[in-house]
Amino acid sequence: MKKDFLWGAALSNVQAEGGYLEDGKGLNVYDTLVVTPEKGIAPMFCDTAVATDHYHHYKEDIDLMAEMGFKAYRFSVVWSRIHPMGDDEQPNEKGLAYYEDMIDYLLEKGIEPVVSLVHFDMPDHLLREYNGFLNKKVIDLYAKHVETVVTRMKGKVKYWLTYNEINLAPYQSDLVAGVYRPEGMSQSELFAQLSVNTAVAHAHAVEVIKRVDPQAWVGGMIGHAPFYPLTCQSDDIIMADFKNKMHNYLPFDIMTNGELPDYFENFMKNRNIHVELSDDERKVIKESSQKVDYLAFSYYRSNVQASFKDIKDLNELEDAVLFDTRGLKNPHYDANEWGWQIDEEGLRYSLIDLYQRYHKPLFIVENGIGIDEKLENGKVYDDERIVYYQKHINSVKRAVEHDGVDLLGYLAWSPIDFLSSHKEIRKRYGFVYVNRDFDDLLDLKRYKKKSFYWYQKVIKTNGEDL
Ligand code: BG6
Fold it and tell me: Which UniProt key words apply to this protein (predicted)?
């Protein structure tokens, strides 16, 4: 791997910070989220008041990252810490100061900050009063948030990410999209309008970042889980291809080509959907596409897609595939307790596929496995995590060294334990264990897991010794 390869890890602050009403922070959609449990898992959900208390432990947590030898660390600026309601005239100074101190501390430790500008944390007020990104005013408020943060951190942050997993935003959900489906609007209409609005939001963010700090690098980011056809029958292949385009490639296609792709226009034409997209918005999308420096993605697993044999109408069939909730399993792979299938070569495949499709430097900004772990005499022997990482990093090396993919770095998920996107503490991802249970905060003390020492060695040897 090249000498300046960015080894490190990533965290979503809203899932780790806690301090949810401290220092002027407002509520966001993660704080107010009412959780729908992942399939088959008993609900044991935490609130976000404390989470894993990263708000008060951030220096200690960064010290641990420095001890592991991190070259880069991705975190997110919680929108409602900066703009508590989202539509505030003035930003919250204490929020800005908090992230500036964090960045200064990272730089002092020689760790490159990689900063996400929104990560499942839209101010709750923007959901309730505006209906999130379905309302064009929210695009302006988001652009204002971006401008406030980037202006303050100018010269200190090289890598910005406009929007965490932007491809998930078009689905109706008060968590990732921060939006309700208006009565009378079909799922596919909502999908189309949100795809367009978040593309415009991303484009504005790119414009702002490049105007405020031309030296900075801007990246788009998706949550990438490739869809393989369940069988080699042509209808499954066509539907997997459709799903990959609509679910995975769409935002990157718009970001890099500067226009809506034909397959998406066709999807709308077939359904008589007319999205609101002004000439000015088309222009900003076009112009921003020249300015995107890299493409980032998270990868945890691959998926499978099958057609619905009994649906004859093609629009109906595509809608069923786009909003498929069957959770089909690939018979060739094992899964973790939450059914997330483990497919390390799927990561290599994704790297090759995305690089050949876009010819832009790529950045893996999340990869990891959630495991239910227990602290035993101050130790956590997370061999399962080590094996997962060994396999995935090996695939990354093959993609870079054999397949010629230009990769900026690899950020594992995650440095410390936090609440999962479903607010579960039982589904742990960290190299560092945080001592709390779902119903008892215990002492929130940090303990290095076995994987902590393993990853330290990997970074030290630049990925040679896995
Ligand atoms: C990614 C998100 O989709 O997956 C993270 O960016 C999330 O915020 C991660 O934590 C793992 O998912 P989960 O549901 O296990 O937390």
Answer: Glycosidase, Hydrolase
CB distance 113 to ligand 1 below 6 Å: no
The residue ranges of every structural domain in the chain are: 6-460
pLDDT tens-place string over residues 109-118: 999 999 999 9
List Cα–Cα distances, 380 to 132, 341, 414, 432, 446, in angstroms: 41, 23, 15, 9, 11
38 in contact with ligand 1, CB cutoff 6 A = no
Q: Under 8 Å CB-to-CB from 240, ≥6 apart: which residues? A: 227, 228, 229, 230, 304, 305
Is the alpha carbon torsion for 75, 79, 84, 88 positive or negative?
positive
**For residue 46, what pLDDT band results from cuts at 50, 70 and 90?**
confident
CATH superfamily of 6-460: Glycosidases (3.20.20.80)
The model's pLDDT over 333-377, given as tens digits with 9 standing for 90+, comes to 999 999 999 999 999 999 999 999 999 999 999 999 999 999 999
Tokens of 242: 């459709």
Query: Residue 48: CB within 6 Å of ligand 1?
Result: no
Q: What are phi and psi of 112, to 5 degrees?
A: -75, 120
Give the closest residue to 294 by CA, choosing from 359, 347, 360, 203.
360
This prediction has a pTM of 0.97
Best CA proximity match to 118, nearest among 83, 91, 90: 83
Q: Whose alpha carbon is nearest atom 5 of ligand 1?
A: 421
8 A C-beta contact, residue 162 and residue 206: yes
Q: Determine the residue of 175, 298, 341 to mutate for testing ligand 1's pocket, defined as the one with the most ligand atoms within 8 A of the Cβ atom.
A: 298
Contact 50, 439 (CB under 8 A): no
Report CA 178 to chain centroid distance, whole Å: 15
Residue 355 CA from chain centroid, whole number: 19
Is 366 labeled as catalytic in the residue annotation?
yes
What ipTM describes this predicted complex? 0.99
